[in-house]
Amino acid sequence: ARESFVITSHARPDGDAIGSSLALALGLEQLGKRVTVVLRDPAPRTFQGFPAIDRLTVAERVDIPADAAIVLECSDITRPGVTGLDRYTVINIDHHLGNAMYGAVNWFDVGAAACAELVAELLDVLGVTWTPAIASHLYLGISTDTGGLRYGPISARTYDTCRRIVETGVDTPRLSRQIFESYSIGRVRLTGALLNAMTLHHDQQVAVLAIDDDLLQRCGATIDDTEGLVNLPLGASEVLAVALLKKQGDGSWRVSLRSKGDV
User: Fold this and answer.
1) Please, what is the Cα angle at 227 between 185 and 174, to 5 degrees?
2) Taking Cα atoms as reference points, which of 125, 114, 103, 124 lies closest to residue 148?
């Protein structure tokens, strides 16, 4: 049996990357395994109060001895932005279309609302007892990836997972306030500036948002404050798709895409 694991997820981690990684780490530790969670970038400020957040190691390379690396919600081995993963036996767990099936073991389920939903299933198979700490991180993953259970491939499995989270005694309304209502003033100002400069195309069905360092500075915001803003224009009934363009330091642009309905 494998006794030691490295767990990682994608660079600029969101709630699902962090929640999935830490829930799985806590579960494996319950079974007596040794686990290191390595991410390229630190967790966003809004997630700092979560129970195991101090377990995250921020690094660009991993070279510790381990029997396997578990890569969560990454379509290919480069997405974590962490070098050295290829030295391990790689276990690939993902729910996004386009996964390259790069692992020695691949578990890909596009029907999952979040990677945390798959981690919950895995914990059950392994015989792990869901503690409030594990449940909190499962909730972080599911609630952020579904925008508070509003979108994505939500199924009966999703709601059943949430039912079991609540049964551990976790105060989900409090966690939701921490996730969705503990932003900086800079984030709130950035939201207004972004929407004010939004352009609409194709009979107002496509919205385009753009962020650069100058805008962030004017609003007193950081790149962390941009998480989830791509979804805002979808609140308009006419808007079916959104593109959010973020200018990078090297002059390139990173693009996030979201849509609703059959787009």
Assistant:
1) 70
2) 114
Q: What is the pLDDT of residues 204-238, one digit of tens each?
A: 999 999 999 999 999 999 988 888 899 999 999 99
Q: How far apart are CA 114 and CA 96, in angstroms?
A: 9
What pLDDT shows up at residue 45?
A: 86
Of 75, 98, 61, the C-alpha closest to 17 is 75
Rounded to whole angstroms, the Cα distance separating 49 from 55 reads: 12
Examine the pLDDT at 1 and tell me if it is beyond 90: no
**pTM for the structure as a whole:** 0.90
- Number of residues written out for the chain: 263
Structure tokens at 54: 């101090």
CB 32 within 8 A of CB 96: no
Helix segments in the chain, DSSP class H: 15-30, 115-126, 132-145, 156-167, 172-180, 185-196, 213-219
Summarize the confidence of residues 131-160 as an average pLDDT: 94
Question: For 26-65, what is each residue's pLDDT tens digit?
Answer: 999 999 999 999 999 999 888 988 999 999 999 999 999 9
Whether 121 contacts 138, CB under 8 Å: no
User: Positive or negative, the Cα torsion across 132, 18, 187, 238?
Assistant: negative
Q: What is the end-to-end Cα distance of the chain in Å, rounded?
A: 45
DSSP annotation string for 160-176: HHHHHHHHTT--HHHHH
Beta strands in 150-213 (DSSP E): 199-201, 206-211
